[in-house]
Amino acid sequence: MIAKPLGKALLSGQERRYDDVRVAVHDREDPMPSVAQQLRQAREQQKLTIYDVAEATKIRTDHVRALEDGTYDIFAAPVYIRGFVRTYATMLKLDAPQLLRELEAELSSIARFSQPPNLAEKSPGAIDLLMLQLSKMNWQLLVLVLGTALVLTLAMVSYRAWRIHQTADPLAGLRPVLYQLPGTNSGELLALPAAPPPH
Q1: HSE of 106 in the Cβ direction (CA atoms, 13 Å)?
Q2: What is the 3-state secondary structure (H, E, C) of 28-50?
Q3: In a 10 Å sphere around its CB, with 0-12 CB exposed, 13-18 middle and 19+ buried, how is residue 118 labelled?
């Protein structure tokens, strides 16, 4: 809103004041810098690059840029924004609780983040139930039981293979052969002994 002068104008440097009209130069507050602007200004005052911040905070560079630009739409949920702002502000030695209060005010003006998330129960599927049961298991005990079962199974299979090998007739697959004495061309047909009776 521009006020029209009602009286004479006094010039002092670059500022114009009017005697008859009160111009609220100091009453009108400059808007408070946003959280994004405060983060960027603090980083630049400390002469840090975005890569320095990413290295120190372990926040991805594209997320640091989004925080400094105030483009919060790239984040999946407000909890990520709050966590990153808290980490970033702490790293820059800013007043993190105050910055988070300002962030809450900013996020409440964004339609996507102003509504609480829908936490309505959906019916769990088979995979959800399986994962729930697996998460309740004592994995150390399970590994111990499975390891013991595997060792016992291998021992039983090995014992059966050994018993089968011990009871098998070693001559079962042989046919009658011709035995020749050394130095002669004649040979004698040797019969195989009879198979032992089964046990």
Answers
A1: 22
A2: CCCCCCCHHHHHHHHHHHCCCCH
A3: exposed
Q: Quick one: DSSP state of residue 74?
A: G
pTM of the model: 0.45
CA–CA dist 79, 186 (Å, integer): 99
Reported confidence tier of residue 128, pLDDT bands at 50, 70, 90: confident
Calculate the dihedral angle through the C-alpha atoms of 3, 8, 9, 10, rounding to the nearest 10 degrees: -140
- Contacts for 122-129: CB closer than 8 Å, 24+ residues apart: none
Domain 35-114 has CATH 1.10.3720.10: no
Read off the pLDDT band of 181 (50, 70, 90). Answer: low
**Looking up tokens 């002994």, which residue turns up?**
193
